[in-house]
Amino acid sequence: MRVFQKAERQALTTARARGAMSAVRGCPEPRSSESSPPDTMETAGFRRLGVCVMCGLPAAGKSTLARALHHILRRREGLGWDCALLTYDDLIPQEAFSQPGTEAGLVAQQPLLSRWKLYRHELLVYLEHFLQALINGDHLCAPTNRTEATWKSFVSCFKEQGLISSEIHDAKSCHYLINTITSRPLYFVLDDNFYYQSMRYEVYQLARKYSLGFCQLFLDCPLESCLQRNCLRSQPLPDETICLMARKTEVPNPEKNTWEQNSLILKSVECTSEDNFQVINLLVTALENPVKQTEENTEQKETDRAICAASILHQADQAFRRIVSQTMKDVRDKNVLPNEMKILAEELNKLKAEFLEDLRQENHQKNQFCLPSSEFITNVITSFQQATDNVVKKVVFF
After folding, report:
1. What is the pTM of this model?
2. CA-based nearest residue to 320, from 395, 383, 376
3. Most CB within 10 Å of its CB: which of 53, 201, 300, 329?
4. Where residue 159 sits, what CATH number does that domain have?
């Protein structure tokens, strides 16, 4: 914590040098009666808002760093910002972590990572509801389509951090009062894995929609260390889940994606004072340079891309089913033992679920999903057929 305090002082000095103390402390510096008129946004009570995405493998140290940031940002003798920490592990119901059941040797249709994705999206919807109420000066209303347990966890989280009043404005319609007595900057720190770029891009889109500061902190921790730390947890994740995330992790790439320019990659095993200074400086920079709203109308583009994505997903799903069915039939005709047939069915359906999940994630990448669809789907089906053949060779002994 001492290192963070030193880094905080350095960041404050840097901010002063840039003439940005109003951004750091959340209010304008005193002005004499002869000085120029105050800034319009400050006069109107404008509150600077930012969102920081913590990303990396489970047990990489994200929550430890997030809690340290939450503490240091709120220190009144330091930056003096407000900070809302959303730890997804605490907000998402336990059922999202459990493995789906099996039926007749087939893996359930909704894999573990897909169900986690649904809850992640739901939390972003709740965060947007809060932003709308905060910006418009309204009460926080419960969304019509909500998971009751997740919504209650979200509200309780914000109540504990003093962002929502403990009083309910309207109990019947679930309207909550938002504490708006301060104009200090407010940072939302999202603590989750966010191992796909598409997951982080969803948050960036939210930041762009409401002109928030946006930044990313990626904790680059060796897989072996994450597995060791995970074993020490009271409720560890399966090693296979962490290994799968490690294979699929997409590290922030500012050179390729301009929206990831405010990103910092940290070696979580040993964070130096220079690392901590860079973290604070990153938060200050993002807050001073909020994402600009796009002026062009992209609604039709998004609609067209969604239609294209749905079509390709449907074609792929149908093709994968045919391949799995034909493969099982071919193997059965060779008098393979029942237990091997069962294992093969599980492995093939697991493979199909992973391929479809990868395709869904591709839907969020810029213009990659709607290349000439016939060529794209042919390549995908060919890859799945090859992967299927490899599974058969691994599981079945003719």
Report:
1. 0.64
2. 383
3. 53
4. 3.40.50.300
